[in-house]
């Protein structure tokens, strides 16, 4: 599978549109266990990213992703700004000067993004955060590729694991972030950060599905 | 949603324009990145003191910019941490060569954004020290939470630490005093109503007509316990007891007692709470040697209050009494 820089641009445009569409849903999830700003914050950030995209339209994938990350850090605020910002910047660092990548590069970029999120947020799996959506997705994608699945199939299996990870946040007790203040009352709610990560994963799969 | 606004998107910038117009003698407002800066900053040789956080807690933090308190404040979107660009711009704007103290309330987003800003400032050769306030006893301080939230102590700390910087204390000394205030202070709050974030358009949580939320945070994030409403004496007891037991405050202690309104509670009710608090402290042999009663760290239009106690010694008392001239706190001038 060959993924070109313009596909990455279409992915980011797709993420911006998807987050705008689900802005109220994310904010609603965040009202239950956080502070009711997740949808609005990400929408503000990706709207700013959209405005920046024309300036990197002819650049390498690394520059596109790093610009996206830096713009998110500068415009989102909250916890999701530094976390998603760091994620996109680290993914970009993994793809410096590349105008094309394959599924294995994608895995490396996703792993770099996850490491960035873990380093910035000092969280690990099972704490009811976006990590609980992203990490199982990467695991499933890697396992499928290792088992010889077609890239397209492997990516779909990865998405299914992300969906499962998001569902699995519902019974978890939050021990990181603002939801942790609720203690036991955080149980029974789907994590907003894991949900926004799912939207990004969905757009990634849909964008790659359009490739011939 | 019924609010005195032009548009949900414009709330922060429209309010900043109002602050700049109203308090031109004390501060100026820079936009993109948005910061509120004390007139005359940077002051050569003085430690710069900055803070920041989501908007919606006014007068904190912008209302505390001025002589004897903050040199700059960074207002984020409503209830959302500001971004590193703001803290970096504020740090540069107030750096008089003696370093800059960042006062950060312990919320995951605030801590991460200030952390990124401190890394950027260090890369530009500015010495930054950080104090993280975490005084809310409603939150269990354990490995299983993000730690206690920073609430009422933040206001008192900004005043005390601002005075230390104003008299010329070094960055190391200013940080020591900041940590002392934080470690000597405890708070707890309660809500009678929810609040509505402008861009959300509806209340963050629902509270029944006869219910109250004990241990509420300042972002409308639900607290730990929902109960039937009681009278002011009982509510004050519910808030004061965990505070007193936590430090613990003991007979013979001198304290600064702060009864704070969350935005929608009138001053007359805060005085009722203060009166009940004074009785409780007297019974325990604790002397209120200084006090503050009013709405200083709010949660939009939420009705409710918080109580903060800080154990005072001579050093902290002297700094509390020192002159301050800001939009929200003024004395000794």
Short summary:
The complex is a heterodimer of chains A (212) and B (333). Chain A has 212 residues and is mostly helical.
What does this structure look like?
- Chain A has one domain (3-209): Serine Threonine Protein Phosphatase 5, Tetratricopeptide repeat (Alpha Horseshoe).
- Chain A is 67% helix and 2% strand.
- Chain A is built from nine helices and two strands.
- Chain A has a two-stranded antiparallel ribbon with strand order 1-2.
- Chain A is globular and about 45 Å long.
- With 333 residues, chain B is an alpha/beta fold.
- Chain B folds into two domains: 8-184, 3-Layer(aba) Sandwich (Rossmann fold); 185-320, Dihydroxyacetone kinase, domain 2 (Hypothetical Protein Tm841, Chain: A,domain 3, 2-Layer Sandwich).
- Chain B is built from eight helices and 14 strands.
- Chain B has helices spanning 11-22, 84-94, 108-123, 153-166, 171-184, 232-246, 267-283, 314-321, and strands spanning 27-30, 35-38, 48-55, 72-78, 100-105, 128-133, 185-191, 211-214, 225-228, 254-261, 287-294, 304-311, 324-325, 330-331.
- In chain B, the strands form three sheets. Chain B has a six-stranded mixed beta sheet with strand order 1-2-4-3-5-6, with helices on both faces.
- In chain B, helix 2 (84-94) packs across helix 3 (108-123) and helix 4 crosses helix 8.
- The A-B interface holds A 27, 31, 33-37, 40-41, 44, 73-83, 120-121, 173, 175-178, 180-183, 185 and B 33, 54, 76-85, 107-109, 112-113, 115-116, 138-140, 143-146, 149, 197, 199-200, 204-205, 217, 219-222, 224.
């Amino acid at each position: 599978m060959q993924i070109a820089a313009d596909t990455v641009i279409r992915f980011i445009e797709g993420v911006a549109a998807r987050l705008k569409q689900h802005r109220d849903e994310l904010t609603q999830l965040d009202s239950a266990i956080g502070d009711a700003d997740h949808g609005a914050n990400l929408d503000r950030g990706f709207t700013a990213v959209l405005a920046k995209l024309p300036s990197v339209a002819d650049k390498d994938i690394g520059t596109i992703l790093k610009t996206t990350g830096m713009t998110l850090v500068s415009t989102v605020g909250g916890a999701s700004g530094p976390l998603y910002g760091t994620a996109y910047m680290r993914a970009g660092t993994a793809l410096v000067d590349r105008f094309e990548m394959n599924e294995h590069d994608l895995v490396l970029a996703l792993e770099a993004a996850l490491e960035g999120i873990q380093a910035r947020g000092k969280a690990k799996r099972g704490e009811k955060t976006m990590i609980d959506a992203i990490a199982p997705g990467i695991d499933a994608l890697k396992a499928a590729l290792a088992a010889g699945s077609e890239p397209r199939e492997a990516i779909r299996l990865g998405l299914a694991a992300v969906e499962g990870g998001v569902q699995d946040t519902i019974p978890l007790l939050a021990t990181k972030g603002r939801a942790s203040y609720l203690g036991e009352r955080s149980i029974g709610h789907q994590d907003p950060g894991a949900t926004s990560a799912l939207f990004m994963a969905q757009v990634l799969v849909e964008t790659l599905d359009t490739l011939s | 949603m019924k609010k005195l606004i032009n548009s949900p998107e414009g709330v922060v910038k429209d309010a900043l324009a109002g602050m700049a117009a109203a308090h031109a003698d004390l501060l100026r407002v820079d936009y993109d990145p948005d910061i509120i800066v004390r007139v005359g900053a940077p002051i050569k040789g003085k430690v710069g003191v900055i803070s920041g956080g989501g908007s919606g807690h006014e007068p904190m933090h912008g209302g505390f910019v001025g002589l004897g308190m903050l040199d700059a404040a960074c207002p984020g979107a409503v209830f959302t941490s500001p971004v590193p660009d703001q803290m970096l711009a504020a740090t540069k704007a107030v750096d008089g060569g003696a370093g800059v103290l960042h006062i950060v309330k312990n919320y995951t987003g605030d801590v991460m954004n200030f952390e990124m800003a401190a890394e950027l400032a260090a890369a530009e050769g500015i010495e930054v020290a950080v104090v993280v306030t975490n005084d809310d006893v409603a939150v269990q301080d354990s490995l299983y939470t993000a730690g206690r939230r920073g609430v009422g102590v933040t206001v008192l700390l900004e005043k005390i630490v601002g005075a230390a910087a104003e008299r010329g204390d070094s960055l190391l000394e200013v940080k020591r005093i900041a940590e002392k205030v934080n470690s000597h202070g405890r708070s707890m709050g309660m809500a009678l109503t929810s609040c509505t974030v402008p861009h959300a358009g509806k209340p963050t949580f629902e509270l029944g007509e006869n219910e109250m939320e004990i241990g509420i945070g300042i972002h409308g994030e639900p607290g730990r316990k929902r109960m039937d409403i009681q009278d002011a004496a009982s509510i004050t007891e519910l808030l004061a007891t965990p505070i007193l037991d936590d430090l613990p405050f003991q007979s013979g202690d001198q304290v600064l007692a702060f009864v704070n309104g969350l935005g929608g509670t009138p001053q007359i009710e805060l005085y009722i709470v203060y009166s009940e608090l004074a009785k409780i402290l007297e019974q325990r042999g604790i002397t209120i040697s200084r006090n503050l009663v009013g709405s200083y760290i709010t949660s939009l239009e939420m009705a409710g209050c918080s109580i903060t106690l800080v154990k005072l010694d001579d050093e902290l008392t002297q700094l509390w009494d020192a002159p301050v001239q800001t939009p929200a706190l003024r004395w000794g001038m």
